[in-house]
Amino acid sequence: MTTKELAFEYLMDCFIDWYKSIKNDNSFHYSFTKLKVIKLLFFASAVNANNEDHNLLGTFNKFVAMPFGPVESDIYNKMNQSAIGKYCISDKELKIQEVSTENNEDKLSPTIIEQINESVEALKKINNR
What we know:
Structural class: mainly alpha
Oligomer: single chain
């Protein structure tokens, strides 16, 4: 997996944990559609970006304009191939595929992990729901 795919998988882990902390259940499968995930990815990538520090826009760096908003083309293409790490994301739901015992988080740089964590926290402060 590429760094971008590993970062996306970690970001999805964070989004799912956030969802579970609000709903106190495991009904997240139908809440994470392809459209919602693409929008959340853009928000997380852009929330802490500025002229001096691109933050996650340095990792998720191929956003293109689409009819429903900005789309990170590499991640979108992987979603359409039903292959982003342990996640299969369709227009209607998110499925968790067979998970290997390998810890992919260890393959991410501490900087990217910190950027993701800070971005998710910034989104929570803007709108926790």
